[in-house]
């Protein structure tokens, strides 16, 4: 089949095939998608297709099979979702998580970025430097200072540092 013959075939058969596949699927958009995909596959085989060998039947068969395949894939996905459903109650973040987030928020942006990329995203120092546009030595300094600041924010009573009100953390009455 030549390109011109294929164009004529497509123009005449597409609406009819969409209607037929729509009757099978019950979804017009899905029918249009699978018929279009079937025509793409037919285009690749157009040289072997002859008008007298029922190319429309071939395209219809491919489109229906595509629709069934999509339906099976969707059904399998739904079964997986049902079996792996999210539990009714998901516990919130623990106090350690909240403390870490609060401590990270207190760090300067550059230190926080270096800490997160290196320790939470598992990037090497060189990769952090590449992503942030900083020198490797600068990233190392940010990591060192950031870790020291995190330690101070997360365990102030052990460091002897003072809190925001100026009193020593370990001296507070509980």
Describe the structure.
- There is one protein chain.
- Helix 5 packs across helix 7 (136-154).
- It is built from eight helices and no strands.
- Helices cover 71% and strands 0% of the residues.
- The chain is mainly alpha-helical and 174 residues long.
- The protein is elongated and about 85 Å long.
Order of H and E elements: HHHHHHHH
- Radius of gyration in whole Å, from Cα? 32 Å
Label the overall shape.
elongated
Mean pLDDT: 83
* Fraction in beta strands: under 5%
Described by strand count, sense and barrel closure, the largest sheet is: none
The secondary-structure class comes to mainly alpha
Query: How many DSSP-defined strands?
Result: 0
Number of helices: 8
Distance between the ends: 88 Å
Helix content: over 70%
Low-confidence stretches: 168-174
Short note summarizing the structure:
The chain has 174 residues and is mainly α. 71% of the residues lie in helices and 0% in strands.
């Amino acid at each position: 089949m030549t390109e011109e013959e294929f164009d004529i075939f497509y123009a005449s058969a597409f609406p009819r095939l969409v209607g037929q596949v729509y009757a099978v699927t019950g979804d017009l958009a899905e029918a249009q998608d699978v018929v279009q995909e079937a025509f793409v596959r037919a285009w690749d085989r157009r040289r072997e297709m002859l008008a007298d060998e029922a190319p429309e039947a071939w395209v219809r068969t491919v489109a229906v099979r595509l629709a069934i395949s999509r339906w099976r894939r969707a059904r399998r996905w739904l079964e997986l979702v049902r079996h792996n459903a999210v539990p009714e109650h998901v516990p919130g973040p623990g106090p350690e998580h909240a403390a870490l987030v609060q401590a990270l928020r207190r760090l300067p942006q550059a230190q926080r970025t270096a800490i997160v990329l290196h320790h939470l995203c598992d990037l090497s120092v060189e990769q952090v430097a590449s992503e942030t546009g900083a020198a490797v030595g600068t990233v190392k300094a940010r990591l060192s200072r950031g870790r020291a600041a995190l330690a101070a924010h997360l365990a102030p009573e052990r460091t002897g540092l003072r809190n925001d009100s100026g009193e020593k953390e370990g001296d507070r009455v509980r």
